[in-house]
Structures are given as structure tokens and as C-alpha cells.
Design brief:
D-Maltodextrin-Binding Protein, domain 2, about 45% helix, about 20% strand, globular, 10 strands, single chain, alpha/beta
């Protein structure tokens, strides 16, 4: 990211990130910037390859590219129990699903690998996983259970009357006693070194947007009703249930997730979380 190039900022297209982005306006930044809204899998690739300079990405994708990324402080999408938008739909019990065939969404590695950790470590199963487009009825035609996340999971949860539903955030909490962080905000190390003042401004803009968004959820809830469906009351409850901070408790749960992912061979290396901070900006100025 050079002075003459626009900063490319990633936005998760799912509603769970809306309180952080609702008041985020890239045109208000004092330099050129563009906002790219995509499902997590595409954002993850853009962040890992350096095409996106700063923004949200799934926690697992951060782990895979942590040597190239710096976390932005106090920003995440986390839950301390039910997350209400990451569901395993199953024809039978969880134990039966863990020994059967599970269709998994192809849009986020964090949730897929959380499911693998829970089914294999917590339940003690060894299912066969098959990748599929996020469509509940199509997935269940050939599988004993299926994983849906984000808005696909929310809509399927509203209409479902046939299948058992397991909230992965709730299952993780009951097994580990920890909350779970599903998405984080990060900047590429190269962008942070080349343009630290830009990263600082973007970080400040995200923090301000989060404060304003959480301070008044009404316009965000109304936007969700218009675009996704449901009621204002549903969306108030949904957003208030989530945590958008990234303090010690959130980091503890995420570190445990990374450890289990490494033990299962899902992550080839152990992860040490490193954060962007003002010291980098100060060092560059000196």
C-alpha cells in the first residue's frame, strides 16, 4: 500500500459484523480507500495474499496467515455461549452425527474447524465431511447433519421444523467454559510498515463506528429486518448477545481454539497473537 494507492478495507458481508461497520465510512478517511464486502472465505484469501490491507477476517484464517498480519485491538465477533448464527442441523443425535456424514458450508473455515474440534474432541466421533453450498434441504439430502453459518443459518433456523439444531457457540462454552471468537480485525504487516498512519486512522474509525453502533442498535436492527427478515426484537437480541470486544476472556477462548486446531492437525503451527499498537507508529515516525 503506497501513498498513491487506495487503502483496501475488508468487510464481512454477514450481519454479525454490522455494528462495527454501520457507521464506518471510508470516504471520510483523509486518504483514498475502498470497502470490499465479501463472505469470510473470500476476505480471508484477500487478507492472506495482501490484496486487502486491513479489515475483518475469520479467526482461523488469521491463524493461518498470522506471520503476515497484525491484530487490531479490541475488535472481534465473539460469543460467551450461544452465537445464534452457527448451527449444526442433524437428523438424529449429536453422537449419531459425529459418526455419520456431515455437510459443511464452504464459506468459513473457522466454523468448519470448530465443528471438527467439537465432534472429534468433545463428542469423540470421526464423521465424514463433505463440502456443499449453504442450502439446508439440499445438504440434508445426502448427509446426516449439516453446518450453516451467518445469515444462511439464521434463515434456516427460522424455517426449520424437521431437524435438531445445535448452536456451536453454546456447545463450545459447555465443553470448555470459554467463549469463542469467530472473527477478528487485522492489518497486513506490510501495510502497517508502509503506511502506519493510515492503519492508525482506520483503526480509530472502526473503534468510533463500533461505539456508535452499539450505542444505538435501532437503525442496524431495522436494516437487518429490511434485508434479512425477522423482527426488530429478534435483531436487538441477536446483536446484544454478541461481543465485539477482544479482551483477555476472548483471547483466552481463541487461544484454546488454536491449540485444539493444532492438536488435530488443522493448523500446522502454533499461533502467537500479535497486535497493532501506537508503538509501531511511533517507531516509524522516529
Amino acid at each position: 500500500m503506497k501513498n498513491e494507492e487506495p487503502a483496501v478495507i475488508g468487510k464481512i458481508s454477514y450481519t454479525n459484523s454490522w455494528p462495527v461497520y454501520h457507521h464506518f465510512n471510508p470516504s471520510a478517511l483523509p486518504f483514498p480507500a475502498t470497502l470490499v464486502s465479501e463472505v469470510p472465505s473470500r476476505l480471508n484469501r484477500g487478507m492472506a495474499e495482501g490484496e486487502i490491507h486491513v479489515g475483518a477476517l475469520s479467526s482461523f484464517a488469521y491463524a493461518e496467515a498470522s506471520d503476515r498480519l497484525l491484530l487490531l485491538p479490541d475488535l472481534s465477533v465473539s460469543s460467551d455461549g450461544p452465537v445464534r448464527s452457527i448451527f449444526l442441523f442433524s437428523k438424529g443425535t449429536l453422537e449419531e452425527a459425529a459418526s455419520g456424514t456431515v455437510a459443511v458450508t464452504n464459506t468459513s473455515a473457522t466454523s468448519v474447524n470448530l465443528l471438527k474440534i467439537l465432534l472429534e474432541k468433545a463428542v469423540g466421533g470421526r464423521p465424514q465431511y463433505v463440502a456443499a453450498e449453504p442450502d439446508l434441504e439440499q445438504m440434508m439430502k445426502t448427509a446426516d447433519a449439516c453446518l450453516l453459518i451467518g445469515d444462511h443459518a439464521i434463515r434456516a433456523g427460522w424455517s426449520n421444523s424437521r431437524y435438531r439444531v445445535t448452536d456451536l457457540g453454546e456447545l463450545w462454552k459447555s465443553w470448555t467454559g470459554c467463549g469463542m471468537t469467530f472473527a477478528v480485525w487485522a492489518a497486513s504487516r506490510r501495510a502497517a510498515e508502509q503506511e502506519p498512519e493510515r492503519i492508525q486512522r482506520i483503526n480509530e474509525a472502526f473503534a468510533a463506528s463500533k461505539r456508535k453502533g452499539l450505542g444505538d442498535l435501532e437503525p442496524i436492527a431495522m436494516d437487518a429486518v429490511a434485508k434479512i427478515g425477522g423482527s426488530e426484537g429478534y435483531w436487538y437480541g441477536y446483536f446484544r448477545n454478541l461481543c465485539y470486544d477482544f479482551g483477555e476472556r476472548q483471547q483466552e477462548g481463541l487461544n484454546l481454539y488454536f491449540r485444539y486446531a493444532h492438536e488435530l492437525g488443522l493448523l500446522p503451527q502454533q499461533v502467537k497473537m500479535e497486535f497493532w499498537n501506537d508503538n509501531l507508529l511511533t517507531r516509524v515516525k522516529k
